[in-house]
Amino acid sequence: MDTATGFITDILTCNEVKIDTVKPDVFDITYKTPLAYKALELVTFGIYNAPTVATIYASDANSNIKSISYKLTGAGYVEVPVADMTFADGKYSYEVT
After folding, report:
1. How far apart are CA 39 and CA 47, in angstroms?
2. How many Cα atoms occupy the beta-carbon half-sphere of 24 within 13 Å?
């Protein structure tokens, strides 16, 4: 490779190319409101509007997860890179508040 231009200047041979055409194995979204916020909403008779936390889960056994995208009403798509996610129990997750 030519380091000045970034162009490949040598012939490369590739014996096998694999393309993952299978969608992620696990995809789920859960919603919850933390108990402390629910209590605050209750004692203020609904004046305080408790936030809901949406957690998005994804897993892919073939090629792993690169990112998760979601869209909020009235806004554009948000793409979350895997570096910003949590990995547990074989799944990546990301919380949206």
Report:
1. 12
2. 17
